Amino acid sequence: MKRQYFPTTTTFTLLWLAAILAPIVTLPPISGDENDQYTKCGVLFNCGSLTGIDYPFSSRDRPEECGHPGLKLACENNTATILINNLKYRVLDLDQKAQILKIARSDLSQNPCTEELKNTTLDWGLFEYASSYMNLTFLYGCPSLGVMVPYQFDCPVKGIAERSGYVELGVGAPLSGFCHVSIVVPVSYPSLVNFTDLVQLEELVAKGFEVRYKVDSGACRECRNSRGRCGWDVTGKRFACFCSDQSAAESKTCAATVVGAAGSYSSRAPTATVAPSASARIVRWKLTKLRKP
C-alpha cells in the first residue's frame, strides 16, 4: 500500500517561503485617460455634413479648453454655426488641412430682411479672406424712388416708416445717402459675374464666402506626434498640449511617448524583471522531495 502524504507544519512553512521568494514580475501600469482634459478633448464635433472636427474648434461637447476661444462651433437643426464679432454664421464647409471655413450670415440665408443691421466684419487677428470677394451694400429704410431700380426689396425696419430697400455693388453706393441704414456683406467674386436679379443675388449671399483662420498648426502637430491632444490654456490664453498621464505638458509635446519617422519610443524607464533567487530554487527542490511517496 502506498503511503498517503499529509502536509506538515514544515511543509506549510516551506510553501510560505516559496511564495515570498518566488519570481516577481512587475508589470507597467495600464495607461488610461486619467486626465479629464485629455479625455474631453478626444471628443470630435459632428453636425450635418461636418464630421470629425477637433482642435482648434470647441463646442458644447468639446469644452473651452479644447479649442481657440474665437472658434466655438454649435449645431442647430443639423447645421453647424459659429459666432464671429457677435454675428451668427452658418458653416457651409470646413477644410481643417487648409484651415479654411466657408461661412454665410444666418440672418440673410432666406431673404434680405434682417434685424441684425450690422456690417459683416471679421476678427482680423484670427481671420483673413481666403479667396477673391466683393462687397454688396444692403440699403434699408429708403424712400420709394418711383422708378425701377435693380435689386429692390421691401422690408420693415423698426422705428422707420420707409420700407423700401436696395442692393448695390461695392461700398459707398450712390443711394446710401437717401436711406436710413446700410450694411456691407461680402460674397464670392467668381459667383458674382452671372447674377441678374434679386433672387439670384439672395442665393449668392446664401452660398457664403471663404475665410482662413490663422492658428499655428505646427504646435498641434508636434503635440499629436507625441500622443498628446491639442487644447487651449484658458488662463494663459495660449496653446496647450494635454497628455494622458498629466494635466498638461509644459512644452508643446508629451514626454511619455514621442512618435518619429522610425516609429515610437517611450521615455519611461523599462520595468525590471526579478529572476528567481538561489534560495527560492532550494525551497522548490525540497518541496519536490517532500511530495514524493
From TrEMBL:
Entry's localization field: Membrane
InterPro entries xrefs: WAK_assoc_C, WAK_GUB
Domain Wall-associated receptor kinase C-terminal: 176-246
Domain Wall-associated receptor kinase galacturonan-binding: 46-105
Pfam families per record: GUB_WAK_bind, WAK_assoc
Keyword Signal attached: yes
Name the record gives this protein: non-specific serine/threonine protein kinase
Originating species: Handroanthus impetiginosus
The organism's taxonomic lineage, starting at the top: Eukaryota, Viridiplantae, Streptophyta, Embryophyta, Tracheophyta
